[in-house]
Design goal:
Layout (H helix, E strand, L loop, with lengths): L2 H17 L8 H15 L8 H34 L11 H78 L3 H20 L3 E6 L6 E2 L5 E2 L7 E5 H9 L3 E3 L5
Antiparallel strand pairs: 1-4, 1-5, 2-3
Helix pairs in contact: 1-2, 1-3, 2-3, 3-4, 4-5, 4-6
Amino acid sequence: MNLEQAYKALYNHWREEFAQIELTELKEAIFKKYKKSVKKLNHLNLEKKDLVREKILESYKNNFDYLFNDLLLMREIKIINKALILDDLDFDKVIPPEKMLYQNVVSGIKGYNKLKALSLFDYNNQAVKVKKDQDQKLMETEELFEGIDQESSLLKEKESSEQNDMNSKGDQEGITESASDLATDQVMTPGIERKSEISYCMIRFVKKTPAIVGVDLINYGPFKEQDVANLPELNAKILLMEKFAEKIEIDN
């Protein structure tokens, strides 16, 4: 195949590749002839200096190079697109480097999809575990607050009942001002009795903490780091759970 025939064959092949979506057939023997013609043309020199012929030859070289490189580029794009969508490729229509390109891209896509599936599986399992832990912690906190509300309500009802009984008794007996003072002292007695009915816990604060109202209706705090306090157990549990304090173990 001389240069003129090679150029026409390459040009027709380029036009066919450009005109259709599917790959054209490129045998290895044809590819080698194209490559040999390009190499031969690039090393061709005129024996005599002729500016006109040199310009024609230079233009001919540039056109040949463009057609050859653009043909390979179009084929490369088509092969990569097929590989990305995992479409089958007819290996009889491609040269060995193109076959290797297709196989490498397909292998990479399949490996990535497998890794992505495993990552999503691990992520979903971790998300479920975190959700369960959060729900468990929320449930424990709600139970603590429910216990505090119930005990606080019972204490208020008991205090109100005792106060009403004492006021009624005072009215019936016509107590004097000094007797009223005695009744006031007796009103404090339920508080002492109430305190004895509540479990307490000794804790040490590990950071600054604002004042709180205990379930025994007594104000505690505010506290500084390293302060020690004996608080109702329900209040202490909340402070321990929220990492405001640490429990002090008292050996019997």
